Amino acid sequence: xxxxxxxxxxxxxxxxxxxxxxxxxxxxxxxxxxxxxxxxxxxxxxxxxxxxxxxxxxxxxxxxxxxxxxxxxxxxxxxxxxxxxxxxxxxxxxxxxxxxxxxxxxxxx
Length: 109
Prior knowledge:
The protein is an alpha+beta fold. Helices cover about 30% and strands about 35% of the residues. About 15% of the residues are buried.
């Protein structure tokens, strides 16, 4: 689930409430991939769904979702690699993108 960073107590509490019973299985992920406007559902070797939320406030009152679904093995693997690279990287020297279980973040305070 998207969080500002690994110390985003408020967002983590909100996600724990929204996904009560599953909070130990859900990780916080630092917002920022492609400006925070993309959603990816990736099932290894099976399927990928990519949705980019295009925003143009002067012309559209809400964001417009644009994306694709693919079962093409090459595309599934390529998008999966891009997503894993983001999750495994850091936004700066000491700020990992994978913030761990939202339940642990919610207990920081």
